[in-house]
From TrEMBL:
Pfam families: ABC_tran, DrrA1-3_C
Protein name, entry field: ABC transporter
Residue ranges constituting the Daunorubicin resistance ATP-binding protein DrrA1/2-like C-terminal domain according to the UniProt record: 132-212
Segments forming domain ABC transporter: 3-76
Record key words, sorted: ATP-binding, Nucleotide-binding, Transport
Membrane-crossing residue ranges in chain numbering: none
Species name: Gracilibacillus boraciitolerans JCM 21714
Superkingdom to which the source organism belongs: Bacteria
Length: 221
């Protein structure tokens, strides 16, 4: 994008690059600007745009020539949470309106939840691929996150009592246990824990847990 040009001027230029028929250029420019909600800002120079507006304009540019496939390479990296949320609203609207197949690369695995299929890569190789639900179902069970007044003592007590009945790991001040059934585990074990519990959370596996299970490390490492 040429930052000295307006959004509309940039899109007019790229219409020529993409060989969009002349009679279709203006309607298509207005159409893609409407999709990304930049109609009112189309005559502003790009140098005046925020980071989120620039990302949306880049998506609009990629739509000019009616693509069948759109590649989005970490579209929300560096954006604040509010801008990220709004950008995903535009992307989902785009998917519904244009019927485009989209390939998304992201380090934010919560964003991958909206995908039809997710491929997890490690060291440049795809190690598993399936729908988000199917990937999480492979892990099964529940994840219990708890903190106590003395985690080291609690951890020793947990390891002595469960004897292979759960996967246990510690991250920071939280003990994580992966169990087949949280209801059965809590009723049979947590009540007998001698160390007072200060925090308790029960959840289903996420794609972050899937990534860790398949690679043995967090995505940021």
């Amino acid at each position: 994008m040429d930052e000295k040009l307006t959004a509309k001027e940039n899109l007019q230029l790229h219409c020529r690059f993409y060989k969009v028929p002349k009679q279709k250029r203006e309607p298509r420019i207005q159409e893609v600007l409407e999709i990304v909600d930049l109609v009112d800002e189309q005559n502003q120079r790009i140098e005046e745009y925020s980071g989120g507006m620039k990302r949306r304009l880049e998506i609009a540019r990629g739509l000019l020539h009616y693509p069948k496939v759109l590649f989005l390479d970490e579209p929300t990296v560096g954006l604040d949470p509010n801008t990220r949320a709004h950008l995903w609203e535009y992307i989902l609207k785009l998917k519904e309106k244009e019927g485009i197949t989209m390939f998304l690369t992201t380090h934010y695995l919560d964003e991958a939840e909206i995908s039809d299929r997710v491929a997890i890569m490690d060291q440049g190789e795809i190690i598993t691929i399936d729908s988000p639900t199917a990937l999480k179902d492979q892990l099964g069970g529940d994840i219990i996150e708890l903190s106590t007044e003395d985690n080291q003592t609690a951890l020793r007590e947990i390891e002595e009592k469960i004897q292979g009945g759960a996967e246990v790991k510690v991250e920071g001040d939280t003990i994580h246990l992966k169990v087949a059934s949280s209801d059965a585990f809590i009723s049979s074990f947590i009540k007998t824990l001698e160390i007072p519990i200060t925090k308790l959370n029960i959840r289903k596996p996420t794609l972050n847990d899937v990534f860790l299970a398949f690679t043995g490390r967090k995505i940021k490492e």
